[in-house]
Each structure stands twice: as structure tokens, then as C-alpha cells.
Amino acid sequence: MHMEIKAILDVDMIALESGDKLTLMLDLTAPQNPLAANRPGQAVQIVLDRSGSMDGPPLDAAKGSLLKLIDRLAPEDSFGLVAFDDSALVIAPMRTMADHDIHALRRAIADMYTGGSTDISAGYLLGLRELTRTAAGGGSTLLLISDGHANAGEKDPKFFSDVASKSATQNVTTSSIGLGVGYDESILEALAQGGGGAHRFAGSIDEAIGAIAAEVDDLLDKSIVNAVLRFTPTDAIAGAPSIEILQRLPYWMDGPTYVLQLGDLFSGENRRFVIDIDVPGIAALGLCTIADITIEYLNLADRQEISVSLPVNVNVVPGDVAAGRIADPVVRAERLIIGAQSAKSLANNELREGKVVEASNRLKGMAAGLRLEADKIIEDNPRTTDSKARIKAEADEMDLLAKTAEEHEILYSSKRMTESFSRGSRSKNDRNIVDPNLPKDPNNPWANY
Q1: DSSP annotation string for 353-371
Q2: Burial of 347 (0-12, 13-18, 19+ CB in 10 A)
Q3: Taking the CB of residue 75, how many other CB atoms lie within 10 A of it?
Q4: Which residue of 29, 85, 151, 345 pairs with 4 in a disulfide if CB–CB is 3.0 to 4.6 A?
């Protein structure tokens, strides 16, 4: 089975000789995986913080999770482990599980100990280098786990985003897990944003164990690897077409073509990507192709590189006809949800400035606005019902973040909001969201081991 691909405009007609802004939604549904026994081998590179702050329960929890991870890997999967403090070292070299001495591997994990300061860049770069030692048919994932701020090596989030984005073009997905309230979310989120993976926040030891397990569930259930969108405007909107990519996705220009990294999709996952297109006045009536799109990806089921091309068409009609058009409810819903992510970003900035009331009110106001929009939707088919449910789910998320901001310390609330923003602003689904079960002590969630 191949990926199901739909390209849908918010409206299917524009007025003759009248400039307009259209919203294109790319709707992707990954195929279901075959039996796990038939999947191609995947490479899993763990990069683990072993700085002094990880001493005790945090490192013990990470060790326990890694021991469970290697038990889940198939003989054809590859595994490697790098640890870092003020320098990085290879604990377990990248090789297939069939080639690992399992007893020696388990002992190497169990014997890890904490060290000095935190050089995230040293660990990440060594982890990437280790991944070049293998060519996994099912793609490669690097998972970086840290509880601290970078106080050695590179500290600029853009450096991490750029390196992760470049690695993503080579079928390496980067994900990150931040432990406790002391880690640098700007760096860890930049790694996930550039690398096309997930960023998770674990506010307690139990959450840390759950977050690592959830990330492993996703990476072992991929069915699509390294999906890429190529968007090429046609001569109909030639000149200086204005294209706005609403999600925070890595992209670059290849001549007139926009190339977007969409990342990996797990089995059965549905993801939606939204692009605004400024269309100049078109002087001829009839069907007009305003862009050509191509989606490229590796289908793990048959281990083939797939390329699918589609035209983006719109009907050019007289102005009085265009005046009666109705926006597609699904595209409109996605546009609203993506737009709402800016409220999370602004509220997070307010939180960091100590403006808790302002942050909470902003989130509640956005939630109320989303519910008003949802109430306008008439549920007359499955698509409108789905749209309404998605908007209400985002409103519920906003209210939960507002409650967290009111009831918990700023560092905790800010990291929870960063996690939500990272997921929502890149249309990342998370079927394995770890229930935070917020700690009893709101002033120090990470202390409740």
C-alpha cells in the first residue's frame, strides 16, 4: 500500500482578473505497516546526557529505559549509544543487534556514570558520526536526552537546527527529550524542528520513562521515511508569487521550486500541511493550474522510493459567481489550528517574563475563540464533524496549558507549552502523549523521584 495523498484548496474558484489569497492543504495518510517481522531494519542512535546533574534517579531511569529498548529491537535493527558531559564518548558503537554482544551491551549501559558539565553539541555531532557507520533500510533516528543547559561547546539553537535539517536530507530524523525543568528547551526543540522529529518534555522520572518508551514506539512503527514536498508555481502566477509556509518546517529553494521536509510518518498516521498562496488576477476564464506539487518518500512496506505528482487547479469564474463560494471546512479548521499556535508562542514569552495572568488569559481567549468558530460548523458529513472535533481538541489543549500556567511554576509551565507548540506548529501528531499526572510539589516537579 502507498501513502494516501490529497491536495485541497480552501476554495475551488476565484474571480476573473481579481487577485486572491488561497490556502492549500496537503493531506497525507501513511499506510498501515505489515507485520513487524517483515519491516526493514532501522538504526537507533541514543545520545544521552551524563553530566553531573543526571546523577542518581535520572540516570538510573534512562539506563532502565535503554535496557528495555534493546530488548525490543530486532536482529536486523542497528543500535548505538553515545554519552556526553563536557566531552562525548561512544558507549556502544553503532552496529546491528545481531552483531552486538548483548551481555556486553547491557553491562556497558548499566555501568554508565555521571561526569562534568554539558556539551550537547559534542554528543550530537558524535552521535551523527556514529550513524554514518550503518545504512539502515528503514531509516535512522537519533534521540537526544538531556536535563541541562549547554554550558560548553555550541550554544546557538540555530546551529543545532541547521545541522539537524541537513542530516534530515540524509534520512536521519532527530528527536529530543528534555528531563526536568532545568534543560535548555530552545536547543532541544531546535533539534526536533530541524530534524523532523518530536520534542517531548518529561517533568518527572515516571514521565521520563514513559517519554522514552513512547518515542521508541513511534520510531519502530514508521511506515513512511523522509517525506519531501516540492511546490512549483506555474506561469499563471509567475513573476514574484508570494508563498507562505504556515508550519515551522525546514525548506529551501531549488530554482523556482520550494522544497519542504515533511519528515517521517508512523503507521496509519494522518498529517496535514498548510500553505498560503497569493494569486494575481488571472485574465482567462476556466480551469487554471496555479502550481505543480510532487511528494517524494521512502515506503518501508515495499522498500521503494515513491514520487507522486499532482496539479493544483482552481476555476476562474465571473466575480458574481465567485462571491458565492464557501470555504472547505477541513482546510479552514487546519488554518485556524495553525494560526492558534502563535498564541502559545506569545503566551510562553509572557510566562518567561513572569506575566502569568497575561499568559493564561491569552490562552483562554484563544480557546474561547476556537470554540466560537467550531460552533459555526454545521455537522452534515464526516469531514465537517472531523473539523469541529479538531478545533475543539485544540481549544481543550489551550485551556489545559492555561491551567498549568496558573497552578505550576513558570519553568514547568513554559516547558509544557514549548512541547505543545513544537508539536502543533509542525502538525506533528502524538498518539503516545505521556499523561503528565502533574507532581504534588508544583515548585519542583523533577524532585519527586
Answers
A1: TT-HHHHHHHHHHHHHHHH
A2: buried
A3: 10
A4: 29
Q: Provide, rounded to the nearest whole percent, the portion of the chain with pLDDT above 90.
A: 46
Span 317-368, pLDDT tens digits: 999 999 989 888 888 888 889 888 989 999 999 999 999 999 999 999 999 9
What is the maximum alpha-carbon separation in the chain? 75
Per-residue pLDDT reduced to its tens digit, 8-45:
999 999 999 888 899 999 999 998 876 555 677 889 99
292-319 average pLDDT score? 91
Please give the grid coordinates belonging to residue 161. 537546527
pLDDT of residue 447: 43
Whether 97 and 79 have beta carbons less than 8 Å apart is answered as yes
Task: Identify the CATH number of the domain defined by range 37-220.
Answer: 3.40.50.410
Instruction: Compute the distance between CA of residue 412 and CA of residue 444 in angstroms, rounded to an integer.
Output: 8
Around 446, how many Cα atoms within 13 Å sit in the side-chain half-sphere? 25
Cα-based distances in Å from 100 to 25, 91, 94, 322:
45, 12, 9, 65
* Protein fold of 4-33+240-321: Immunoglobulin-like (2.60.40)
Tell me if residue 398 falls in helix, strand or coil. helix
The pLDDT tens digits for 230-287 are 999 988 876 555 667 777 788 888 888 999 988 888 888 888 999 998 888 888 999 9
All structural domains of the chain with their residue ranges: 4-33+240-321, 37-220, 329-432+439-447
Please give the Cα distance from 184 to 120 (Å, whole number).
10
d(CA 358, CA 413): 14
Radius of gyration of the chain measured on its C-alpha atoms: 23
Chain centre to alpha carbon of residue 333: 19
The pLDDT of residue 214 is 86
- Rounded to 10°, the helix 205-219/57-72 angle is 20
Q: CA 219, CA 207: separation in Å to the nearest integer?
A: 18
- Confidence (pTM): 0.85
pLDDT at residue number 433:
47
Q: In this structure, what C-alpha cell is assigned to residue 91? A: 558507549
Instruction: Write the CA distances from 381 to 24, 57, 372, 386, integer angstroms.
Output: 21, 51, 20, 9
In whole angstroms, give the CA distance from residue 281 to residue 317: 11
